[in-house]
Amino acid sequence: MQQTINGLALGSTYALLGVGVTLVWGVLGILNFAHAQILTWGSFAALAALHLGVPVPLAILVGMVAAGVLSVLLDLAVLAPLRARKAPEFSFVVATIGVSLVLTTILRTYTDAQTEAFPRQGFPVGAFEVAGQNVPRLQVVMLAIAIVAMAGLAFWLNRTRSGRAVRAVAHNRETAELLGVNSQLVFSICFFVAGGLAAVAGIFVAASAAQVSYSSGDGLLLVAFAVIILGGMGSVKGAIVGGLVLGVIEVYATSYVSSVFREIIAFATILAVLVARPSGFFGKKEAARV
Amino acid sequence: MTALLELSGVSKHFGGMKAVDDVSFTVRQGAICGLIGPNGAGKTTVVNLISGYLKPTTGTIRLAGADVADLRPHRLAAAGVARTYQNLQLFEESTVLENVLIGRHLSFKGRRWQMGRTRRREEAEQHEVARRLIDRVGLTGVIDADVAELSYGMRRRVEIARAMATEPRLLLLDEPTAGMNRTESDEIGELIRSINDEGVTVLLVDHNVRLVTEVCHRVVVLDWGRVLTEAGPTEVWQDQRVKTAYLGTHDRNAVEAPDAGR
């Protein structure tokens, strides 16, 4: 029970991260290699806010907005000019790798490559006791926030005008444009949402580890890619399910086998799934995006 | 006799290939204009230029007097241009209703972000408009079906409903009856007429001689990327050059073009 909650909580951070990557993949067809750095910058923005004495919920919001804006800037300053020039797909990938290196280097220089303590005051600590088992509060809150975020996302994409525009652009940008959809606006919205959700994931990872460093996000990039491949590229539902599954597997592997095998077991499971379903849980042959 | 659409000296080159070469014609406000020509004559390229999908190499395209060649497509949609596609471009994994709703994107009265009751009311109104359009093209029975499940003819109707959802002044129809039988294409002809009766100007690309002759007021004939001639819908078929072009004999020295329309 406790392990399942832990797994789901870890998985929900993976899901938050994966959703952002999958959203950008969905509308633009590129993998954003700078996504993990945006997460890290969001965590640092929240940390700075906490140092200024800002209450936790507000600090989380600061982190989200900072990461969202940074993410939009990445698109406007780097990717939009490439789009205007109709650059080949590979240029976009290399550009995001470049941005990720720049962001890492700035943060490393600024923090002297030191790991910073992440204050946990104000975050929910301690544990609930459920049926004689301890369930850490932080994990429960994390899971709850992720569920709310995902429900909101699903509502937005399926039931609102701007959400429909996102799906239309994901499916066929040119057709959507001629129906009056401003695709650049759609890209900006998606990058903002992706950045904001990444920041939430980053802040909770930092809070549960009680520390954060310039390289905190690095390991998570591979995880995010694994999550969306597992769930099906471009599928928001897939990213959520993929994230939760991967989180639970990792926690089970750690507690019932050994932490040494944690990643091996996780990635072996992904391999097994992909052998059975090469396009992931919810992937379609022709990448049904978003 | 005001011109809604005015092409003057429009060319589009792909590398050395002149897909469209110095094309000029006008479509009168409120008219149904046919655009015909043999395969590869450049009809779809002209539609792609008018709809902003391609930018002309040279020349100007005016809509109600304003130059629209450099407008981004979503601006062009706002200016009143809508189209359907020869090879259908529907949002395949969405329902008929959702496809038409995307066409309503610009027609939401409120601005971008609406919450609670305002949003629900606006959504309900837009759903109602979409329903009426779907009813008009005769697809009420499949309104919640995924378009991927529909027949070819039905999908063509979804595209027309979606284009009409943007409330266009100029509707570009790229082969709306391709692959349809006679009854179906007659129905499309009726639909085009009724759309036109509401004041929507139509540019119709089609190979269906009967349809073009029956619904169009004027017909522009393209051949090898150039305007071959422009005439009324019945006269146009009498033109020897049109017959020759349609028979595919581009060698002008080849005599003896059999005396049949297509």
TrEMBL record, chain B:
Gene3D superfamilies: P-loop containing nucleotide triphosphate hydrolases (3.40.50.300). This is ABC transporter ATP-binding protein. The keyword Nucleotide-binding applies. Residues 5-249 form the ABC transporter domain. GO terms for molecular function: ATP binding. It comes from the Bacteria. The keyword Transport applies. The lineage of its organism: Bacteria, Bacillati, Actinomycetota, Actinomycetes, Streptosporangiales. SUPFAM superfamilies: P-loop containing nucleoside triphosphate hydrolases (SSF52540). It comes from Nonomuraea ferruginea. Coiled coil: none annotated. Keywords: ATP-binding, Nucleotide-binding, Transport. CDD domains: ABC_Mj1267_LivG_branched.
